[in-house]
Amino acid sequence: MTHRHNQDKKPNAAGSLTPGEPAFLAVGKLRRPHGVLGEMQMDVLTDFPERLVSGIILYVGNDHLPVRLQKSRPHQQALLMTFEDYTTPEAVGELRNQIVYVRTEDRPPLEPGEYYHHQLIGLRVIDENGTYIGTIAEILETGANDIYVVRPEMGPEILLPAIDSVEMDVNLQDGVMRVHILPGLIPD
């Protein structure tokens, strides 16, 4: 998943793999065969389903079995996927209930100021004066905006809305997010 931030100060925020990043990113979960031609239903876990195009190599399951995508098409809330060399429901059924990945270096480039969620988890959060607030432990996706769950060294978790009036700067290289704390966001 991704998050948009409008004031990116780091020129290569969405660029190459940085230490600690996963080598593979989940893009979907295969469910069950569909029809008799080897199609497989996949729940979409990526913000970029349009990047799942014919010819792309995907990696299935914990062993990251490489498969070449022959075609995909929308079906209800999912995609129907057809893989090369999987032409029957029985053959593709072997991939049932497994996660589908892409290699991290093959991920689409993001616009300046956009970040993948995995890039933000673990960032140290400081206020505009440099005071340490906590570490981003989780990102909650809500209808309006994401919420950063910040875990301080002591006390309850702090919920910070991922909005421009709070989030000031992200520096992935230093592992820091600088924020403006609005009144009432941190309990006294």
Main traits of this protein?
six-stranded antiparallel barrel; elongated; six-stranded mixed sheet; 2 domains; SH3 type barrels; mainly beta; Elongation Factor Tu (Ef-tu), domain 3; 14 strands; 2 helices
Any overview of this molecule?
The protein contains 2 helices and 14 strands. It has 2 domains: 24-106, Beta Barrel (Elongation Factor Tu (Ef-tu), domain 3); 121-188, Roll (SH3 type barrels), CATH 2.30.30.240. It is mainly β and 188 residues long. The chain is elongated.
| End-to-end separation | 32 Å
Number of helices: 2
Widest sheet: strand order? Answer: 2-3-6-5-4-7
CATH top level class name of the largest domain: Mainly Beta
Q: Ranges with pLDDT <50 over ≥5 residues?
A: 4-17
The class by helix and strand makeup works out as mainly beta
Mean pLDDT, as a whole number? 82
CATH superfamily (homologous) name of the largest domain: RimM
Number of strands: 14
CATH architecture descriptor name of the largest domain: Beta Barrel
Give the radius of gyration: 20 Å
What is the number of domains?
2
Q: What percent of residues are in strands?
A: 35-45%
Order of helices and strands: EEEEEEHEEHEEEEEE
In percent, how helical is the residue content? Answer: under 10%
The biggest beta sheet, please?
6 strands, antiparallel, barrel
What is the CATH third-level topology name of the largest domain? Elongation Factor Tu (Ef-tu), domain 3
Shape, per Cα inertia axes? elongated
